[in-house]
Design brief:
Largest sheet: 6 strands, mixed
Distance between the termini: 17 Å
Strand order of the largest sheet: 5-6-7-8-10-9
Shape: globular
Helix content: 25-40%
CATH architecture: 4-Layer Sandwich
CATH class: Alpha Beta
Order of helices and strands: EHEHEHEEEHHEHHEEEE
Number of helices: 7
CATH superfamily: Metallo-dependent phosphatases
Number of domains: 1
Strand content: 15-25%
Number of strands: 11
């Protein structure tokens, strides 16, 4: 798989057909695609997700494409801790996995806080509707990170404090509105991004990171800091690092 094209896909929020639409639109073949979280897995019953993704997997097999996804805040964490689907060409990657893909050594760090978590917690009171999970956030494992070597690329859902968007001077109007009913929201968001910054500080001690890809913020932005190119992918955005 070392000679395969390498592409990156933004949040798709359960619209699995986006994958099929994009690979058909651009006639993508012989490729690896990394999805940066908010895949949207777990809101439906397992059987329904399995049926829908089976169709996607069949198309990926036909095109010799392998898809890797990390968890976002709109994903059911147990599916990433122990992938229950067993698809040949779709993998839900466990946090802190390091995988060699298309000649890159890639560290995967999933999880993020939902800014609308209070509203989704209320929705979750209906036992027949899966809407929010308490283990959604990024979890820093300093000991594990300190032993990782040889990584050059990081995939995460949220981002360090210094990446876009910069919340130093306040949060977006939407966060301000949602924080009225969630008095810990801004504190928790700040803490999570600080923890992600700490994760980067630790991993950079033994690794030369050149690229970082993330989602979560529903816009597209590229920035460079300290030798690392940070790629924020928008919703349904498909990006190829080396051109077609």
């Amino acid at each position: 798989m070392e000679n395969k094209r390498l592409l990156f896909l933004g949040d798709i929020h359960g619209k699995y057909y986006v994958i099929t639409d994009l690979v058909n639109l651009y006639d993508i073949r012989n490729a690896n695609i990394i999805q940066v979280g908010d895949f949207g897995i777990g809101f439906r019953d397992f059987e329904i997700d399995y049926e829908l993704l089976s169709l996607v997997n069949d198309d990926l097999v036909d095109r010799d494409i392998y898809l890797y996804a990390i968890r976002g805040n709109h994903d059911y964490k147990p599916y990433f801790d122990n992938d229950p689907f067993g698809f040949s060409n779709i993998t839900f990657v466990k946090d802190y996995s390091v995988i060699n893909i298309s000649s890159k050594s890639i560290l995967f760090m999933g999880g993020a806080i939902s800014i609308d978590r209070v509203r989704r917690i209320v929705d979750n009171s209906n036992s027949d509707k899966k809407s929010w999970w308490s283990d959604e956030s990024f979890e820093l494992d300093e000991k594990l990170l300190s032993n990782i070597e040889g990584v050059d690329t990081i995939i995460s859902h949220t981002a360090p404090t210094y990446c876009y968007p910069d919340n130093t001077n306040g949060y977006s109007p939407l966060v301000n509105v949602l924080s009225i009913d969630d008095d810990m929201l801004k504190t928790d968001l700040h803490t999570e991004r600080y923890l992600m910054s700490e994760a980067f500080n630790i991993i950079k001690k033994k690794n030369k990171i050149t690229n970082h890809y993330y989602g979560h913020y529903h816009t597209s932005k590229v920035s460079e800091m300290d030798g690392i190119t940070h790629h924020l992918l928008g919703v349904d955005e498909l990006y190829e690092e080396y051109g077609k």
